[in-house]
Amino acid sequence: MFLEAFLLGSCALYALNYVVLLIGRSRVVALPRRQPTEWPHATILVAARNEERNIRACLQSLLAQDYPADRLQLVVINDESEDGTLQIMEQAAAASPGTLRVVSTVADSTPVHGKARALAQGIDHATGEIFLFTDADCTPPPTWARSMVEHLASNVDVATGFTIVGHKKTFGALQALDWLHLHAIASAALELGVLMGCIGNNFAIRRSAYQRVGGYRGMEFSVTEDFALFAAVMRTGGRGIFHCHPDAAMQTEPCATLFDVLRQKQRWARGGIAMSSKGKMVLVIAVLMMASITIAPLYSLAMWGIVWGCKFLCDLALMIPTMARLRMLPLLRHFLLFEFYFIAQALVTPLLLFRRTVVWKGRRYRS
What we know:
It is a single chain. This protein is an alpha/beta fold. It has two domains: about 100 residues, no CATH class; about 240 residues, Spore Coat Polysaccharide Biosynthesis Protein SpsA, Chain A. The strands form three sheets. It has a seven-stranded mixed sheet, sandwiched between helices. Strands 5-10-7 form a three-stranded mixed sheet. Strands 11-12 form a two-stranded antiparallel sheet. A hairpin with a 2-residue loop joins strand 11 and strand 12. The longest helix has 28 residues. It is globular and about 70 Å long.
């Protein structure tokens, strides 16, 4: 009897949680965009460490933005790369004088380090009123900078958008669905006042908001510096949004191996410890559902079907509108396999919290 109550209760909580998230998701679709009468000066910042495979394509896509050229600056930061990243950056800068600036990180006395240090030092050279962040393994559409600025309406200080993982192969498709699922939850939750996550490779913030929170140098170190910055802006009364629009959807490369995926999840999990209690409650409900699917066959196959069906339908209800808006519906052919993939890694991820050392870009951090 107890097991049956646990399984059915988990289903009820999960379904209720998704009903609430669907309300938030409807508000995400309605988020306003405002084209300014005069486009503000904006600076795109990219911190790169050992990215010779990706940085060229990234810079080409950023230089092809349809934002007014005289109001857009590109600052790329070489973060102690040990490969040909710096040389590729310098070649691109020589071909685009006055538009692209290359900065190399230097040792300093501040406690900030890692990617946050690189971005902080890059911002020292930024001239824009708005900072746009992406990563070296990303390629935005030409409309990205313009769309991100339009989403920073007069009452918005910080914004993040969806990122789509490359999905030419099945493993990439599973990662793409995973990211879409997590982003759909985070964006819906934010419209309900709960910050659960943001995307540092598709991120925009006003200079005034960045300075108000002290910038990266004025914040405690976090392995998820993007989430820490977003949260700091929200704590100081700023308005943040997680929008969903194809014009501002970033493209990124998939992780090469399952080990890389788990290491990525561990970094996100460690950074997510700072999440609010409401955000953690959403995650607890999800973990209960994963556990229920795992143990339901011990009760009966019929119960397993009920639990599984509940999760499957709830996930579809949230993701189909999001995928349709981003023109990603063809990925639905991988959805059943994704459900198994998601359950497996969702059960493993909480265990990764016990490992406090995070390895990222060849560096080790204690979180």
